[in-house]
Every structure is written in C-alpha cells, then in structure tokens.
Amino acid sequence: METAEEIPQTANYDESKVPAYTLPDPLLLPGGHPVTDAAAWFEKGRPATFLEFETLMYGRTPSKTLPVRSEILSLNPRALGGKAISQQVRIYFSEQAEPHMTLLIFLPNSQKTPVPLFLGLNFNGNQTVTNEPDVLLADHWVRDNPEAGAVNHQATEASRGTGVENWQAQLITDRGYGLATVYYGDLDPDFDDDFQNGVQPLFYEEGQTRPAPGEWGAIGAWAWGLSRALDFLETLPRVDAKRVAVLGHSRLGKAALWAAAQDQRFALVISNESGSGGAALARRMFGETYAHLNTAFPHWFCRNFHTYSHHDADLPFDQHQLLALIAPRPLYVASASEDLWADPYGEYLAAENARPVYNLLAGDAARDKIGYHKRPGGHDITRYDWERYLDFADAHLR
Ligand code: GTR
User: Fold this and answer.
1) 79: which strand partners?
2) CA-based angle 270:274:276, to the nearest 5?
3) 57, 145, 297: residue to mutate for ligand 1 pocket, most atoms within 8 A of CB
4) Which residues are catalytic?
5) Which atom number of ligand 1 is nearest to the Cα of residue 292?
6) 363: closest CA among 62, 37, 123, 3?
7) Is the pTM here over 0.85, yes or no?
8) Cα(251) to centroid of ligand 1, in Å?
9) 215 pairs with which residues across the strands?
10) 231 Cβ neighbours under 8 A, 6+ residues apart
11) Candidate of 274, 300, 341 to mutate for ligand 1, largest count of ligand atoms within 8 Å of Cβ
12) Which residue, 32, 28, 23, is CA-closest to 49?
C-alpha cells in the first residue's frame, strides 16, 4: 500500500489513451452459463454478481439486528415558510447514547396522501441543508472547513444553510415530495480511524477489533445507515415507503448505489457524479484510479479491494454490473462536463451497459428506466440536477 506522499495524483484525461477493454457480460454466470430469464437472474445471476461486489469491493455488511430505538427531537408543522412539516428523529443503535444518527425529514403540507420521498446522506450536517433555525447542528466529527463553518472538527452556526442550493428542499416539497437526510459522519466519521468510531464496533465479535478483509468499510456503513433511515420512514403514515428514492453525490453516490444494490426496498436510485468506485467503469482507466481511492481513502472499501490498486481491470466485474444490481428499478446516473475526475463518459457507458439486465427484466418498459444527463460545469449537485431527478421521479413514482 502506498504512503500518502505516493498517492498517485496523475490521472488519464486523454480519451485516446483509454486502453482497449472488454466488459464482463452481466448476463453470464461465473461458470460461463448465460442467464436467459428473470427467474434465473434473481436466483443465480444477481446473487453471484452481488457476492463479488460484496467480497472484493464494498465488503460484507453484518446482518445482526441491533436494538434500534428512536427519539423524536422536534416537530415543526410550519417549516419552509409554512409549506412543510419538519421532523428530527434521533436513532440509537444500542442502549448507549453513541453511536446515533439524526434524521431530518421535510414533508409537504400540500399533500393529503402518503408522499414519495428522496433520501440522501449529507456531507456537512443537517443544519447545512436548509436555513431552518431549529435544525440541530451535527454532533459528530466534521471535516474542517472554516469558511463553511466547520472548525476544530465541529459544526458551528456559521454552517447553517450552506448547502441550501445542493438540497433544494423548497423545490422538492413544492413538487409534492418529501426529503429526508442524515449527516454521513453520524454513521462513520470520514477519516481513517481503523474503525473505532461509528457503527462498525457494534458488530465486532468477541476479540474482534476491526472489520475482516472481506467486511465493510465506511461506504458499507453509510449504505447501512440509509437502510436504517428507510426502516424509520416505513413507520411514518405520511410517507409512502414503497416510493423512496435514494440518492447521493460523489462518495455518497457510491454509498447510495451500494445501499440500493443491497436493499431492494429502495424504489429508485440516483447517482450524482459518483465516479470511480461508483457508477464509472474502471476498465477505461480515465480519471480517478483504484490506487488513488485506496490510498487517499483507505477506509472506504473493504481491505480485499486494496489488492486491486494498480490492477483496476483485474476485478471479475465492472461497475455496469453494480448498476445492473438495481434493475429493474428506475436508475438515474448524472455527470458534469468538467468533472473529469469522475469520468462522465465512463458513468454513461456503465449505465448503457447495465441495459441487458434491464431489458431482460422489464422488456419494452426498460428503455425509460435508465436516465442520464451530463450538465455543463463541475463536481456538484445543483438545482438543475434536482429538476431532472424530480421529472424522472414524476415519471416513475407517480
Ligand atoms: C474525491 C474522491 C472521489 C469523490 C469525491 C467526493 O476526493 O477522489 O472519489 O468521492 O472526493 O466525494 O466529493
């Protein structure tokens, strides 16, 4: 494994230097047998594909059920200028106070029937998502960013509302959808602490001090948290939990995809510029490499994945097959033209190459089930992106 000074900073941004490659056929079983119908996909193809991603990339999520309990912290019937009800709920995963996650939920007051909802993790604390003064500051480690109100790894008042443009709570609720979010550091703070903080220690066996080589890293913990948030949303009568879209930007897009691959309750999935280790094909060797991911962020994936630093093309799968694990549920992949680090074209090609599985499972309806856009600009999630996601959700969740 490289030291920090050796982190490969050079990335290929030259389309002519993309090597020749052949993508694994998502409909071929490891022994070479073709999957020819939906039953065989769900009985054999999907489990085999899933097992490879689990073992070699994201790591296995422990299945132990925890004594989860929730505490309602606030209820505001007149949030977002009176148009929405907001709720904050703290979810504990043991009898202890830590670890816990705080779920922030907005539901439009205009809707009389249970609403479809977007669920996503946020980068800097729930208080950044809107300007609502009653939203609690993140109470776990945050990445320092003094200009955005994150100082000494603590969220401050100055960070309130700094992510309003990225979250568009007003637009989402105006269009009749709910929005729910959790600060990702509640689940596992995003630094390499050898998995002493966050939710992993809850699952250690007697004598275990860190996840085994094939067990989850931080992305696995973030994805697990999305499923625990959905568990809670299922208890809310005003939410239609069968119409929950899970989304994420960048590293949290990787987590959203992995959450949806594992948890088929998520009805629709959105990858916003998830890039390498998310929606982007590895075999193109364009933009961020696995060597970079594993050295800059050694805690994100499972330890087995470190074997593939500098051997990106040696994995038995590529990321179109992660997207195929979402089939036949609607999937939207979005890129930005200047976000070459995330390989926009590789994200597009992964979505296109998931189509054989969608076609097999959904027939003629498959065509519209995969959405894609590449907007001008850089690495970000913007109002334009949300407008596309809302249109896509209108087509599939209404
Ligand atoms: C980068 C990382 C990407 C992406 C991004 C983000 O530093 O190399 O894989 O996850 O962070 O999350 O914004």
Assistant:
1) 84
2) 145
3) 297
4) 250, 379
5) 8
6) 37
7) yes
8) 5
9) 60
10) 68
11) 341
12) 28
Query: Does residue 245 contact residue 257 with C-beta atoms inside 8 Å?
Result: no
Ligand 1, pocket-test mutation among 250, 286, 295, 297, most atoms within 8 A of CB? 250
What percentage of the chain exceeds 70 in pLDDT? Answer: 98
For residue range 191-212, what is the model confidence (pLDDT) as tens digits?
999 999 999 999 999 999 999 9
Q: What string of DSSP letters covers 203-221?
A: GPPTT--S--TTB--HHHH
Q: Quick one: tokens of 88?
A: 């904050």
Q: 67 with 91: CB under 8 angstroms?
A: no
Give the residue whose CA is nearest to atom 13 of ligand 1: 250
Q: Which long-range contacts (CB under 8 A, 24 or more apart) does 378-383 make?
A: 378/336, 378/338, 378/339, 379/250, 379/273, 379/336, 379/338, 379/339, 379/341, 379/342, 380/166, 380/249, 380/273, 380/336, 381/166, 381/249, 381/272, 381/273, 382/165, 382/166, 383/165, 383/168, 383/171
3 state SS of 306:
helix
CA distance linking residue 49 with residue 301, whole number of Å: 17
AA letter at 83: K
From ligand 1's centre to the CA of 288, what distance in Å? 9
Interatomic CA distance for residues 244 and 241, integer angstroms: 6
- 164 and 223 in contact (C-beta within 8 Å)? no
**What is the per-residue burial (b if ≥16 Cβ within 10 Å, else e) of 47-83?**
ebbeebbbbbbbbbbbeeeeeeebeeeeebeebbeee
85-121: pLDDT as tens digits: 999 999 999 999 999 999 999 999 999 999 999 999 9
From CA 28, how far away is CA 52, in angstroms rounded? 13
Cβ of 250 closer than 6 Å to ligand 1, yes or no, is yes
- What spacing in Å lies between the alpha carbon of 273 and ligand 1's midpoint? 9
Ligand 1 atom nearest residue 278's Cα: 9
Is the Cβ–Cβ distance between 216 and 302 less than 8 Å? yes
Q: At what angle do helices 46-53 and 251-262 cross, to 10 degrees?
A: 140
User: Ligand 1 centre from 57 Cα, in Å?
Assistant: 16
Q: Which domains does the chain have, with CATH numbers?
A: 24-397 (3.40.50.1820)
